[in-house]
Specification:
heterodimer, A: 653 residues, alpha/beta, Rossmann fold, 4 domains, 5-stranded parallel sheet, 28 helices, 52% helix, B: 199 residues, 8-stranded mixed sheet, 8 strands, 32% helix, globular
């Protein structure tokens, strides 16, 4: 991963001139006293002026001065790569430790930190750690730290905190010296004046200068004739009168290949041609399209513009489009306050459907989103009727015949598992059949949660409007309102409003309202003001109906004796009864025996202690009904297992 | 062929160097390659035999950077000149936005030039393209050879350039006329782009 120091790149081979003297001195100082002189040392220069050479030279010199030092040279890219590899391998800490223990760290090309936030913070951390430990860090870049785009301020100040030096373009004398030394290294001799001619051409950097020298070396080797200053000029394409850059700018007449920058001249020409080809208005339209598309808006209108030859008033069209988008944004955010789901609708992303968007927003503004409705899982026909719930059911029927007029409010009272939630939803479903009915049917907990969300989102008015539109309000587990002052306040107002307009109110509670703790007197008295209908423990009829339906549903052809036995058994709730049946059925399945009264007796009476585990929660009905029709039970749906071995089988299935 | 992509803000030009074998098509690309800064050029892909004959084709992508807000790329291709690689030639020619016909200026190569030009025409037709509608420039290469061996630009114009497309005298080995040719074809291609983009 770490690049070895190139043996050629030492201080001995580095030609020092006015342009790089400071950098070289700093480099030598740092190499002799790592960590004490300039830390960090930051060297910057244009490409090909010797940054890498100098950086490696520091490494060599430091190693020579103190062979025990650990010295690492690597480019930023290598470091990033190593870091990513370490992170991928889960070795992030090892990576950090490794670099924190380096005595002289040489990092090349740090300008590539642009847009790499995580690497920037990593480098910041590393620099701090190295400095604190008195270890040296030397960095190079093609520009000074503040000019590296998108660099963290802290890192800029950290990197600028030691010494920042630049290497300039070598002057003529230095260029001659470089050329002499390089040709000596290659064992090539040139006629007098040749190297001076080459040095006279102002190459942008040393690398290009080396390229020129290489060409001469190659030419001389091939042709066996010495290169003269004149041939050198010809080989290098140097116009005798002008510098190569100027030659390129004149872009070469037909008789002569262009200078060094033929490509630049070509690029300039192409730019002009493209500029003409891609008319400015198209660029503007495209830009607008890209922008709005990027934000998720549909842009057919702008696309249509592009298809025209020369459309009139392009800018006006773009402005109008932008204006429409702003309007959509405003509508969307307004809608989002009330109903985040509705805000996601595609009409708010299509300026061509502005009308629809306005309408949708208006609907939402008026509380258009209906309140949660009853669950379809609880039809009235599925409700088993018997003496134990006769009162409640006839009250419900009366309510359905004369909604809002006869029993208002109707409060269904009973223990958990007796079917209050079922009956409540059944009433809701029947009421919702009427034309123009808006039935709000939900658990009190959901009602409270909605109010809190509305307060949080600052749209209580909209929330109220939603419920005020309801033709019926049915709340399950009204006792949960206990202690919720604000909800009681809201419910009080809503109650009065709906009752005044003869709209039906139905509630469920575990005990009569006046016995509920934490309920304000004004609420409790209002609840008591209608009819409080109690559901008691299921009677034989109810149980029979439930049992028959349940067993038929499970495809069990039950013998009368079984039904009789189960119906005669004591069950404190319908849910308890259902649980018992499930136990019997699963026991039968486990033993591969038919569901019989004998088996039921064996199962239900043989293992009496298990009953104790099943505590019927008093606080809620246990069923949370969502308006989507699904049922989430707070209790487990599989109540009992006959014995552990069956359970194992079940889990392995 | 999608020359200009307004959505992606890209302009991509495919330029094919066509001509008889050994006329200097690959040499053109090599010279250009040498002049394009490292950062601007992709790898030059060249599949050549040991004797430097192009076996399949050369490919040189050049990135011209952002021009008028468009990422502009040129893709330069050469075809193998030898007669028996016609399938490859046809393949490379597919979707070309412009063609540079590199003619060998040597007098004795005139027939090869003519044959290759006809081959270009028929291969374009195979793709349903009329040679008269394709941006085309002629390059008369090897003009550095002794006068007695070659035909002059005017002679070659008479012999080959019956449509009067722009023509350039060149010495591709030393770079003379190479960029002029590239400029010539680029202008034709981009002008056609301007005319065609409204459609």
């Amino acid at each position: 991963m770490t690049t070895a120091l190139h043996p050629k790149y030492s201080f001995d081979t580095f030609v020092v001139g006015a342009a790089n003297r400071l950098a070289v001195t700093a480099g030598r100082t740092v190499a002799e006293n790592p960590g004490t002189a300039y830390n960090p040392l930051f060297i910057y220069s244009g490409s090909g002026l010797g940054k890498t050479h100098l950086l490696m030279a520091v490494g060599h010199a430091a190693k020579k001065a103190a062979p025990a030092l650990s010295i690492e040279y690597l480019t930023l890219d290598e470091w990033v790569e190593a870091f990513h590899a370490a992170i991928a391998a889960g070795q992030g800490d090892a990576f950090r430790r490794r670099f924190q223990n380096v005595d002289v760290l040489l990092v090349d090309d740090v300008q590539f930190l642009t847009n790499r936030k995580e690497m920037q913070s990593e480098l910041l951390r590393l620099t701090e750690a190295l400095q604190t430990a008195g270890r040296q860090i030397v960095l190079t870049s093609d520009r000074p730290p503040p000019q590296i785009a998108d660099l963290d301020e802290r890192l800029i100040s950290r990197l600028s905190g030691g010494l920042v030096v630049d290497i300039g373009v070598p002057d003529y004398e230095t260029r001659v010296a470089i050329l002499r030394r390089k040709s000596e290294e290659r064992g090539v001799r040139f006629d007098p004046g040749v190297l001076e001619t080459v040095a006279g051409a102002e190459f942008a950097n040393v690398r290009e200068l080396m390229g020129a020298l290489n060409r001469l070396v190659a030419f001389q080797a091939v042709n066996e004739a010495s290169v003269t200053p004149e041939t050198a000029k010809r080989i290098l394409g140097l116009s005798p009168a002008a510098a190569p850059v100027a030659a390129a700018a004149s872009s070469g007449g037909p008789g002569r290949p262009g200078g060094a920058d033929e490509f630049g001249a070509f690029l300039a020409d192409v730019t002009v041609t493209v500029g003409k080809a891609v008319e400015a208005w198209r660029a503007r339209v495209t830009e607008a399209m890209l922008r709005w598309e990027g934000e998720g808006y549909r842009t057919q209108r702008l696309e249509a513009l592009l298809k025209q030859e020369a459309p009139a008033a392009v800018d006006a069209a773009i402005t109008e489009f932008a204006h429409d988008v702003e309007r959509l944004k405003a509508l969307e955010s307004e809608v989002a306050q009330f109903d985040p789901e509705a805000a996601g609708h595609s009409v708010f992303r299509d300026p061509e459907r502005m009308g629809e968007a306005e309408q949708a927003a208006a609907r939402v503004r008026e509380g258009g989103a209906p309140p949660p409705g009853p669950s379809a899982a609880f039809p009235l026909v599925a409700f088993a009727v018997g003496p134990s719930n006769q009162v409640a059911v006839s009250a419900a029927r009366a309510v359905l015949e004369h909604p809002g007029k006869k029993y208002n409010p109707l409060v269904l009272v009973g223990k958990s598992g007796l079917g209050k939630t079922h009956l409540l939803n059944a009433i809701g479903l029947e009421l919702a059949r009427k034309r123009g009915a808006v039935v709000a049917c939900l658990s009190t907990q959901a009602f409270i949660d909605e109010l809190i969300a509305a307060i949080d989102g600052n749209h209580v008015d909209w929330w109220r409007a939603r419920y005020r539109r309801a033709t019926a309000l049915l709340l399950d587990d009204i006792h949960l309102i206990a202690g919720k002052e604000r909800t009681q306040e809201e419910l009080f107002n809503l109650f009065n409003l709906l009752q005044d307009q003869d709209r039906q109110l139905v509630f469920t509670a575990p005990t009569p309202p006046n016995t509920l703790v934490g309920l304000e007197e004004r609420i409790a008295s209002r609840l008591e003001g209608g009819l409080v209908a109690e559901l008691t423990e299921p009677d034989r009829d109810v149980k029979r109906t439930v049992l028959e339906r349940l067993l038929t549903l499970q495809g069990i052809n039950a013998e009368p004796a079984l039904i009789d036995y189960l119906a005669d058994r004591h069950a404190d709730s319908v849910r308890g009864l259902v649980a018992g049946v499930q136990r019997v059925v699963s026991a039968a399945a486990a033993q591969d025996a038919p569901v019989s009264a004998g088996l039921a007796r064996e199962v239900l009476e043989g293992q009496a202690p298990r009953e104790a585990r099943r505590s019927a929660g008093l606080r809620t009905s246990g069923l949370v009904v969502s308006s989507l029709g699904g049922i989430k039970s707070r209790e487990k749906m599989v109540w009992d297992w006959t014995d552990p071995t069956d359970r194992v089988i079940e889990e392995f299935r | 062929m999608s020359l200009v992509n307004f959505t992606m803000r890209e302009i991509t030009c495919k330029i094919v160097y066509y001509g008889p074998g050994r006329s200097g098509k690959t040499t053109n690309l090599h010279y250009i390659y040498g002049r394009v800064p490292d950062a601007r050029r992709g790898r030059m892909v060249s599949l050549a035999t040991q004797t430097d004959r192009t076996l399949f084709f050369d490919f040189l992508p050049i990135d011209l950077g952002q021009i008028s807000g468009f990422t502009t790329r040129f893709q330069l291709y050469t075809v193998p000149g030898q007669v028996y690689y016609n399938a490859t030639r046809r393949l490379v020619l597919q979707g070309a936005d412009g063609v540079v016909f590199v003619a060998d200026s040597q007098a004795r190569q005139l027939d090869e030039n003519l044959e290759s030009l006809q081959n270009l025409q028929s291969n374009l037709l195979e793709h349903g393209v009329d040679i008269r509608t394709v941006p085309l420039v002629m390059q008369y290469n090897k003009q550095d050879l002794p006068r007695e061996l070659i035909l002059s630009g005017a002679d070659l114009d008479d012999a080959l350039n019956f449509r009067g497309v722009p023509s350039f005298s060149a010495d591709a080995l030393h770079g003379q006329g190479v960029f002029e040719t590239l400029k010539g074809i680029s202008e034709l291609v981009l002008k056609k782009l301007a005319a065609g983009s409204a459609a």
